[in-house]
Structures are given as C-alpha cells and as structure tokens.
Write a structure and sequence with these properties.
Length: 89
C-alpha cells in the first residue's frame, strides 16, 4: 500500500532530489527509497532547527550534518529478539 506524503517545502529540496535521482539508476529500488527517506528527514531537520539555511554554501558539517545524524540516531528504535522495542543510542 502506497502512502501519500505531504510535499516537502524547503529551498534545498530540489537540489537534494536531483542528487538522489542522478545516482538512482545505479542503485536498487530499496536503496533509492532509503536515500529518499534520509533526504526527507535531513530537510525536515534543517527546516525545523535551521530555518536560515537556504543554500548549499550555508551548510556546514558541524553543526548541521553532525547534529542531524545525532538527532536521527537518538530517535531510532528497533525491535529486539523477543519483540521488545529497544532504543539505539
């Protein structure tokens, strides 16, 4: 079942989607889906925590990318061997 997603409105969205599309032909559909999910998550993070970022030149490894990775790692959950939800930190 396909879920519809609300459009992601961020000034850098087109740049990131084009980058994913440019490498999509050499990747499996599942990998492309994963890249799109990470891209969507990163752009949502930028939109909520760094509204002033409107161009690639403004992005920095620290704090933008490293903080995004840290934030996403803190929110990842996995199902353990016995079905218990375990947070990964």
């Amino acid at each position: 079942m396909m879920r519809t997603r609300r459009p992601l409105c961020h000034p850098l969205a087109d740049v990131f989607w084009r980058a994913v599309d440019s490498i999509a032909t050499s990747l499996s559909p599942d990998t492309v889906r994963g890249y799109r999910a990470v891209t969507r998550s990163f752009l949502r993070y930028l939109g909520s925590d760094y509204q002033q970022i409107h161009s690639l030149e403004q992005l920095r490894r620290d704090p933008h990318i490293l903080a995004s990775i840290s934030t996403s790692n803190n929110s990842v959950k996995t199902i353990g061997v016995f079905g218990d939800e375990v947070g990964l930190s």
